[in-house]
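Operator note (shift B, R.M.): manual run for Tetratricopeptide repeat protein requested after the automated queue skipped it. Running by hand, logging everything below so the morning shift can see what happened. Input copied straight from the record, untouched. If output looks odd, do not overwrite the archive copy; leave it for review.
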Amino acid sequence: MDVDIWAWVGSTQRELHEAGNTGLAMALGDVPGQALEGRFTQLDVVAPAIAQHAETLEKPWLEFFARYWHLVGRAGDRAIGAVALDDAVALADFAQRDDVRDCPAAPGAVEVLAMTQANTDGPGYAETRLATLGAALNSVGPDSLAFSGLATQYVAALLDAGQAAEAVAYAEAAVERLRGEGREASWELGAASVRALLAAGRPDDALAALDASTGFKPDDPVAKGRRETLLRSQVLATLGRVQEAVDALPDLDVVGDHAREWVEWARTVRMLTEGIANTWQLGRILRQWMSYFESVGGHRARFELALTAGHLAVARQGLWQARLLADYAEAVIAELRATEGLAERVAELRAAADDAKELPPPGPRDELVAYFDAADGRTADPERWVGWLWPLSGTDLEATRRHTTTLGFLGYAPVGADVYWKTVVEDGDPAAAGDEDISYLTGLLIEAGQDERVETLAARLPQTRSHLALARLHRARERWEETAAEAEQAAANEGGLEALRLWSGAVQQLGDNVKAAEILKPLLDSGEGEEEDVWRIIVLSTAVEDWATVRAAGTKLGMPIEPGEGPIEEEWHLVRVILPAPDGSQREVLAVRTGPATARLAIPQPRGMDYNAGDVVVIDPRPLEPIPENEQERESFVIPFAGVTMLRPGGYTSWFFDGAAPSEDEWAEFNEVLAERGWPMWVYSDENYRVTHPATGEQLPGVFGWIAIPPAARPAELDAVLDDVTEQWSHPLAWLDLAREVGIEAERHERISKEYGL
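Run finished. Output pasted below as returned.
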């Protein structure tokens, strides 16, 4: 993105503010942060909304800005490939429109298209990327901030084309061109040069280049730390400096949420098996990563991960997995555009598996099931047990159960489903199979995405089990009406507790809390339900304000609820309630728990939220975080709960205040005055917030936040109180929206906002 774009963003925000589009203006400035900081839930909601609104306002540059950053968030850290390819092509076409091509950011469309193509199949799109990137680079010079990003992608394309020497030369030339303009290369361009030197067989030079580029300013500052240490580990591993490479390698909890790093991390780990534990847990994670790339169209990444994971499996003698991964990699070849040498690499993995020695089982073949059951669940290696049980699977039912479910646990549900299907359905009579087998098989089929087989299985089962199998399938696919219908039929035919849970859950998803509660309430008297069912009854009954049932269920759990009738409105303890925000993110709101499943929000919320201080909400009583075992930590721990639904709005209205921070005494009086009236206040600014002194221009500590007043209080009362309590402050406070609402001194607050740069 060219530097001029940020001046344009600022002016566009001011235009939107002046036009009354305050929410859009605020969201606009946050979109790049959402893309780079990994706030993708927000980004996937906010960016398309801005783009759509920009189209309505006929602001094509604004539309381009939103669409560009959305793609950066998708093709960048998330490494989305084929799934985003059409959108990337559309953005590149959009950037060529007459009313867009002059936007300083327009070259970014070519960069993000190249990233998406690389994610899909880097070598397969190498020549295409070189052509489009080359044309874009011919239209911009090193004086543009677009240059580094385009040059970085060009180097990556050369590497994917197998032109390592050319990549080294191009990277060095690009760095020199930037220096000639008095500019420094981005860290990403420096890292591309390091990778080129590695590919050219010059690891010593790569390490020197990495050291030289460490001070370069990154385009993605959030990712630089982990990406740099990963690259350093790779270089050191190539040099044979194993312990240093192990020390530099980022932990799984650092790279685990960043798909862009997965292939490089796995390759580096393969070079470091002498210093890193090569375990079944690692194999399971790599299989999960492959599944992720299946979902986003990262075909080349799937292939590379499969081969890497396969060789790691051979090294730890997980030979069955290595062979399955060879099959997996071979199947992926059909999705790739450039396939030269790939079949040979798959054959190499198969040969390695065939040459390796199988681990002997821990006991006689006919005793393996007993050995499996006796194994310590915390220390046993499930990968080895899959290999040991495989000769029995499909012939011995007990062994088949354990073998196939363990396969599913390790990420090979389709393989387990095929074995179990043959045993129970093809070679047996599913109508005569046990409930446990049908439940396990249905779960494997659903996890493997074999929906047609679930339907075939259901057609061969007795009525109740047939309805249950279909209800499980519909629930997994979030088809709530179908889930409710099938589960109701199962419940009517003695489907037991599972049928009731499925039915109630589906009915709740359809918005009928009353019926959902009625379905489960008989469990209170019958005693058939478990503790989780009683809690579910409490939540559902709270949502429909059936307080008699809430009290009865609470008593069953031994909760100290005060006797009586009507709403339960006690003062229990502080909690954190997690609620949705309009931008797709979640907000954590401090609240007071008032009953088994209720909490009253204590913090004022900005305008535009669906809830505010004083609202009573239904919460899910299952803590979202474990309660600390340490007593000292437990004393300060505030338990987080998920918000379920609004129970009773408090009717509070929030008003914004902003200005220079007062003295401690002034602030104490401010808080005291508001607390006396029961008007909640919360500061949303942090210690970094600054405002400008109108006389000297110096930066002053600032403060902004929201005050909420109940429906019985009029805005004019708040205005008068604020005017009185801040009258003697060294610097005035502004509450512009409130002043406009009550029609008192709005001009003064406008002047304060302007003078202090609020």
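Quick read of the result: Strands lie at 574-580, 586-595, 598-601, 616-620, 640-648, 653-660, 681-683, 690-692, 699-709, 733-734. The chain has a mean pLDDT of 91.
Leaving this for review. - R.M.
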